[in-house]
Design brief:
The protein is α+β, with helices and mostly antiparallel strands and 423 residues long. It has twelve helices and 18 strands.
Length: 423
């Protein structure tokens, strides 16, 4: 059978679209892709080895295949490699019940803590799912293992390093619904799989994007098509996204995001082995090991609520996500497509720069602050005033002197242009 030749999809899809097709390729803000790259995550040898001969398929039909895929049972190993140009990050996230140094007794087992650890370096995950009521994700490190298990009305998080188990209520109660995505697992760790990353990327398919089928590959022993996604907008820092799609069932098996600057992938997530058979029921059974410290996550959340009310960190984050914070919560999005930028209005005080920085440098200890900021950020000026741009290989952020933040997977000049336009 013939090998697949590139089939481009750009500037719209042409003709009428079915509701399912519209859902698959609807316009979406690729800031979500940047967010997933920032938190979240050479997996299988990068599409090395044989390239299977598969029936020719168009990009539209391959995207539709992904959208129609309804595989709910699988188990396997996922390798996550993230290289954003950041130093390796220690675990810790102060902002959720049990999260961070001040988060409570369950801090070491909090899912948000593990999310931060996935933001750099390479990690191995063992995953399993059996419908919406049963999922398991284990992060395997050299000296310890972290497991998150959802089984019916219960969710367990266990950190073998600290021998701490965090028990929470699964979806069904109001608290469960507020703090978890459909399917039981916290939203943070759901972004660590090829399926979820690919779906976020495919939301961007539209007139700002070129989508092609770029040959075939073997991934985790499975025949796959390679879907190549490239931004058309010059200001984007994303060079390309490559998604390996299972030729049989449409499940994304591998997700690779390469920056425009080149080099190693910024985010590389994919299965090294996968099985679509029903996992054993014992996979989702969890009993805290003997001697483990068991923490009631629901009780910790309730305690934080009583002590801090709406000022509790997790309440603030929930309000922002639901658009209920100050000025309707979270960031405002400006621009479109791959050059979308999230903005957070400042309160009048930002990082020192310009004359303030010159003064700081002449005042002893303040000079240390100035030297540090100079080493990690570039001073910039415009009609908006002045500020600093902090860069990674993929995501850049401009912090103005008045504290306003502009952040996105865009280059420095695009951030400055956005700040000037918003003045």
């Amino acid at each position: 059978m013939p090998r697949n030749e590139p089939t481009e999809v750009s500037d719209g899809w042409g003709g009428e679209r079915s509701p399912r097709r519209r859902k698959a390729v609807r316009y979406g803000v690729p800031v979500a892709v940047a967010g997933a790259a920032a938190v979240t995550i050479g997996l299988v040898p990068a599409f090395a080895g044989s390239s299977p001969d598969l029936p020719k398929i168009s990009a539209q039909d391959l995207i539709a295949k992904v959208a129609k895929s309804d595989v709910q049972q699988l188990s396997g190993t996922v390798r996550v490699t993230t290289d954003l140009g950041l130093p390796s990050l220690p675990g810790g996230f102060d902002g959720a019940p049990g999260g961070g140094a001040k988060g409570g007794d369950g801090a070491s087992a909090a899912p948000q803590k593990k999310l931060m650890e996935l933001a750099s370096g390479s990690h191995t995950l063992r995953v399993a799912a059996d419908g919406p009521e049963k999922q398991r994700v284990s992060i395997v490190d050299k000296d310890a293992e972290y497991s998150l298990v959802h089984n019916g009305n219960e969710v367990w998080a266990y950190d073998s390093g600290s021998k701490t188990a965090l028990h929470s209520t699964a979806p069904g109660s109001r608290a469960g619904k507020e703090h978890r995505a459909p399917g039981g697992l916290p939203k943070d760790l759901k972004t660590a799989t090829p399926q979820d990353l690919a779906k976020e990327a495919l939301k961007a398919a539209g007139d700002t994007t070129s989508v092609t089928v770029d040959g075939t590959a073997k991934v985790a022993g499975r025949d796959a098509y390679q879907l190549l996604i490239k931004p058309k907008q010059a200001g984007s820092t994303v060079g390309s996204i490559r998604v390996a799609v299972d030729a049989d069932n449409g499940v994304p098996l591998k997700f690779t995001l390469t920056p425009k600057s080149g080099g190693a992938a910024a985010v590389d997530v994919g299965f090294t082995n996968v099985d679509f058979a029903k996992p054993a029921a014992s996979t989702f059974a969890f009993t805290p090991p003997k001697g483990a410290k068991v923490v009631d996550g629901d009780k910790e959340r309730a305690t934080a609520e009583r002590e801090h009310g709406k000022d509790a960190p997790f309440h603030k984050k929930l309000a922002e996500a639901k658009g209920e914070g100050e000025d309707k919560g979270g960031p405002n999005i400006i621009g479109k497509g791959w050059t979308s930028i999230a903005t957070i209005k400042g309160d009048g005080s930002g990082l020192p720069s310009g004359k303030d920085m010159d003064k700081a440098k002449s005042k002893g200890a303040g000079g240390d602050v100035g030297a540090f900021l100079d080493s990690i950020g570039d001073k910039v000026n415009g009609s908006f005033g002045s500020g600093r741009v902090f860069s990674t290989r993929l995501v850049n952020a401009l912090v103005t002197d008045n504290g306003t933040v502009y952040v996105g997977a865009v280059d420095k000049q695009t951030l400055i242009n956005a700040a000037n336009a918003a003045k």
